[in-house]
């Protein structure tokens, strides 16, 4: 086969993989800065016996941080490549309770969640407000990053993070 054709094919595949690493329908992949996340997760009550979900879990590091605090931690992510990467990271942490699911975060139910973490663009956060208000059990905590719910009043704001509690 022609060498130029092989090189062009390789470059094309490389570009597709690179673009798919950043792509996302309700937000592109922009990772949470990890400096403050442990403190925020603790503030939200993430610990052993709690069920934590991250909606749009990106490279999985926030889910793994929650699992390291003892929670049963679940990530939902629409990018296969990021799910595979997250599962790979989890392999290095034996003994934690963690699951990563590939799929659309809007098609799952979160009625058993104790804590939810969301870092999506404004339109995605807005769409989730009504769904979570309907589904979450009393006492469940939601953390949003950078973008906040338009109507739900947070009980705490810490840096770029908003914390909400389901009260009914
Ligand atoms: C801004 S990034 C945040 C990643 C991660 N939560 C973090 O804080 O580091 C948003 C992530 O949500 C994912 N995402 C966007 N829309 C989604 C959808 N409808 N279903 C599942 N994942 C989605 C994107 O693929 C991307 O990985």
Structural features, described:
By secondary structure, this protein is of the alpha/beta class. The chain has a single domain, classed as Vaccinia Virus protein VP39 (Rossmann fold, 3-Layer(aba) Sandwich), CATH 3.40.50. It is about 35% helix and about 20% strand. It has five helices and seven strands, in the order ααβαβαββαβββ. The chain has a seven-stranded mixed beta sheet, covered by helices on one side. Strand 1 (about 50-55), helix 3 (about 60-70) and strand 2 form a beta-alpha-beta unit. The termini are far apart. S-adenosylmethionine binds near residues 77, 79 and 82.
Secondary-structure topology with pairs:
Layout: H1 3-22, H2 37-43, E1 51-55, H3 61-68, E2 72-77, H4 80-91, E3 97-102, E4 115-118, H5 122-135, E5 141-145, E6 156-158, E7 161-165
Parallel strand pairs: 1-2, 1-4, 2-3, 4-5
Antiparallel strand pairs: 5-7, 6-7
S-adenosylmethionine (SAM) binds at residues 24-27, 29-32, 54, 56-58, 62, 76-79, 82, 104-106, 119-120, 124.
Give a quick set of tags describing it.
single chain, 168 residues, alpha/beta, Rossmann fold, 7-stranded mixed sheet, 5 helices, 36% helix, 20% strand, binds S-adenosylmethionine
């Amino acid at each position: 086969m022609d060498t130029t054709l092989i090189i062009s094919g390789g470059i094309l595949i490389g570009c597709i993989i690179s673009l798919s690493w950043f792509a996302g329908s309700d937000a592109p992949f922009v990772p949470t800065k990890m400096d403050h996340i442990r403190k925020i997760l603790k503030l939200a009550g993430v610990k052993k016996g709690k069920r934590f979900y991250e909606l749009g879990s990106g490279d999985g590091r926030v889910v793994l941080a929650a699992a390291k605090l003892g929670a049963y931690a679940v990530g939902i992510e629409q990018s296969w490549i990021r799910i595979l990467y997250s599962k790979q990271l989890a392999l290095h942490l034996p003994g934690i309770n963690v699951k990563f699911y590939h799929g659309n975060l809007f098609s799952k139910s979160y009625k058993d969640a104790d804590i939810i973490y969301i870092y999506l663009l404004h339109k995605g956060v807005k769409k989730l407000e009504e769904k979570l208000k309907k589904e979450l059990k009393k006492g469940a905590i939601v953390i949003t990053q950078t973008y906040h719910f338009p109507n739900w009043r947070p009980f705490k704001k810490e840096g770029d993070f908003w914390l909400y509690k389901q009260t009914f």
